[in-house]
Amino acid sequence: MSARDARDGGPATGRDLAADPGRLAAVRLTQLLDAGAEESFDRLTRIAQRLTGAPLAFMTVVDDARSYWLSSQGLPPGSPTENAVEQSFCQYVLDGEPLALADVTTDERTAGNPSITGMGVRAWAGFPVRLPDGQVLGSFCVVDTTVHRWTAEDVQLLDELAAIASREVALRLATLEAEQARATARAEAQRAGLLARISDLLTADLAPGHLWQAVVALAVPDLGDFAYVCTVGRDGGLVPVASQHRDPAELPTLRGWIDRAGRRVGEATGPGHVAVTGQVELIDLPEAAGLTAAQQDAVRLLDVRSALVAPVIRRGEVVAVLTIGRLRGAPPYGERERELVATLMTRAGMVVETARVASFERAVSETMQRALLPPLLPQPDHLQLASRYLPAEDAQLVGGDWYDAYLDAARTTSLVIGDVAGHDITAAATMGQLRTMLRMAGHTGTAGPADVLTAVDVASDTLGHHVFATALVARVQRFHADRPAVDRSITWSSAGHPPPLLLHPDGTVDVLTDRVGLPLGVDPHRPRPEHHLTLPVRSTLLLYTDGLLEQHEPAPGPAPGPSARSGGGPARSAVRDLDTGMARLTALLAESTDLDLEGLCDRIVTTLIPEGGPADDVALIAIRPYSEEQPRPAHAGPNVPT
């Protein structure tokens, strides 16, 4: 079917529309031409490919010469990432109207397109991806190499996914504008020389230990011959945390004196005094009055000529003190150096506060996320359950992956797994809300998995709770209520979630690719499919989030250089595609039939997750049934209904 009627008039004007100056200017502002893959767009094209059944899916960005495939699914590795505008089908939606053709060779607008023979395009359905000002960025489309009659549901799905992609582009533009505004503000505030280095090196993602070392590295040699930082303890004492000397051979001497100097409480001048006053001090040596015996020892031992002592202040409280010294023969410090050091410490204080807030947010998100996962899984009726959850290695990527298991009022076991879009406190909070809503919708045991998902989706829409999440609900039941259970019955429904895996005792792995419904938050009123299968004794049903399939492949050889976050380590290639991840997971399961359920989960995470942690959050939950005609195996633990 077609999403619009054929237009009247002359030949296609796609090239003219592509060259429109206003549109081109808007496209270039997005910085998406030649941009790398982004998960937010890849997730949408994967959904389009999976739910329409098309072998190929794209999100494109079109300028005046080419159609760049920002996200693509179904192409073999090493394939091109773009084609010319006149070869693309995206040109046909640059006027803002969608187009869906079951056979492109029969439509006068597309029959002569070179991609019919060049790429084997036979069916195409695309919708414009728009910029906030209404200009068309490119297309969100699916492609088939055979005649494909797009259903009304296909067209509606693509329309909705294109709208979501447009919102993602708008968010990116807003982020770019905010970044540009911050960059402009920084540029206006920058000073020459050391001030520029302060802005560059003291970044907000420094951990406290790295921050203090960066401070002394900035101070030496630009401001002094040696420097050290002490943090201020709760009792007012000073604790040395970083030091630097122009001459590496003299660094042990400096560190030895710092350690001998002790807590520095009660000093009339110097770090102990600045920790109390919060004021920058300029000390001219050796004539300065009021020096303690330890300070006089430092003047002689280190041959100090002049010193600057400055506080790091956070929320009105001195949290650290920097001391910078110049050796004899150097000019004494003056007001210019005092101003530079004050600026350095002000910036350091901002970084300390930013690090504190980021650490707090991370802790809150992770605590929230873990608190909302079930602390104890039920182990009812000779069913054994096991689970794993691993947060992303990147401290900023706390997200909304979760799993759950519970017994409903009918004493039926339900399994739930889901993944909320986003990586922040909001995603973690949304995850908690969805988990609670799914429990409430299924607690009576009277609603099937599809009805449970629909009820939550409708409630979220009714209450204005905007979500975009995948989820899967499975119910495990006895075949006969009045006799000991052997094999079990599984009923399940998926809201756009990756397919469950069924591992048989003989090593066969079934990938349950039955039809799935839309993710939560797309169309709450569309009916959801529901499926049934038998769960044989000692088989294993595995549910997981897509982070398990998308982990980085380790690249051979050492990394080209240290990472500011990780401190170096093995280099990594790009995130692998879902097909590769699925192949690795199914092969691993097939080789693991000798393991008990806990051992199987351990092997999955230790084999598929890099040593430094996953690139994205990973959640998984597995269930294995045993026959009630025999004692429950000892390794499965006792029956523990909860």
Which stretches are poorly predicted, pLDDT < 50 over at least 5 residues?
1-12, 554-575
**Count of alpha and pi helical runs:** 15
Mean of residue pLDDT values: 83
In the sheet with the most strands, the strands line up as 3-2-1-6-5-4
- Beta-strand residue percentage: 15-25%
Shape: globular
Class per helix and strand makeup: alpha+beta
What report would you give on this structure?
- The protein is 33% helix and 25% strand.
- It has 15 helices and 23 strands.
- Helix 7 runs antiparallel to helix 11, helix 8 packs antiparallel against helix 10 and helix 11 runs parallel beside helix 12.
- The radius of gyration is 31 Å and the shape is globular.
Can you tag this structure with a few keywords?
six-stranded antiparallel beta sheet, five-stranded antiparallel beta sheet, alpha+beta, 642 residues
Question: How would you summarize what this structure contains?
Answer:
It is built from 15 helices and 23 strands. With 642 residues, the chain is α+β, with helices and mostly antiparallel strands.
